[in-house]
Specification:
single chain, 200 residues, 8 strands, 32% strand, 26% helix, alpha+beta
């Protein structure tokens, strides 16, 4: 995480909820030949986070009992010094929102994995035509379920970086918002303007 104190979240920020709203995680899994990376959607279940991995993924055999790093990257974008009030003494940078979790993973039951899949659909399905597994043939669902392995990290250690130009003057931040807006990065512009990540 970035060391600058301006980029730290508020002490009462719900980082697990923020990570779940971002959704996709990059999971670093230790393995004998060197670390492996898994890209998987995460869900929150009380104070734990769950994810699932295809059984054919080499990392699936190394998650249970392993100390993992789980990182999610939210809104992000390039920041040009030409957007600042005085660009002559500035350099380019990159703004971003990221949440990092660390903890020991444990394998979960099929029932808990199904619960994770159900929550994933509940969070991300479109409201007008939502899918649920009740619409599936149950034999087909059971076959697909057999192809994945679910894992949980209970009470992960969380940290976050909200790098949204908070260390710049009000004039510089206004210039960043205008530059991002012109470039079509509306969510990043909203986040900088608010000083906080924008969901959606």
């Amino acid at each position: 995480m970035h060391p600058h104190p301006a980029f730290r979240p508020e002490p009462d920020a719900d980082l697990l909820a923020m990570a779940e709203s971002i959704g996709l995680a990059h999971i670093v899994v230790p393995a004998p030949g060197g670390p492996l990376i898994v890209h998987a959607p995460i869900t929150r279940h009380g104070g734990s986070v769950r994810f699932h991995v295809a059984r054919g993924n080499p990392a699936a055999d190394h998650c249970d009992g392993a100390d993992l790093v789980v990182a999610v990257l939210g809104v992000h974008g390039y920041i040009s010094p030409s957007w600042y009030e005085r660009p002559d003494n500035q350099v380019p940078t990159w703004n971003y929102v990221a949440v990092e979790m660390r903890g020991t993973a444990t394998a979960i039951s099929d029932d808990d994995t199904v619960e994770q899949l159900d929550r994933l659909a509940l969070l991300h399905e479109p409201a007008d035509r939502p899918w649920s597994r009740t619409k599936m043939d149950q034999h087909a669902f059971a076959k697909l379920l057999a192809g994945i392995r679910g894992f949980a990290i209970d009470k992960p250690i969380l940290s976050a970086t909200l790098k949204l130009s908070q260390n710049k003057t009000a004039a510089d931040r206004a210039g960043v918002v205008a530059g991002l807006t012109r470039g079509g990065s509306s969510l990043m512009a909203q986040a900088v303007a608010a000083g906080a990540p924008i969901s959606g």
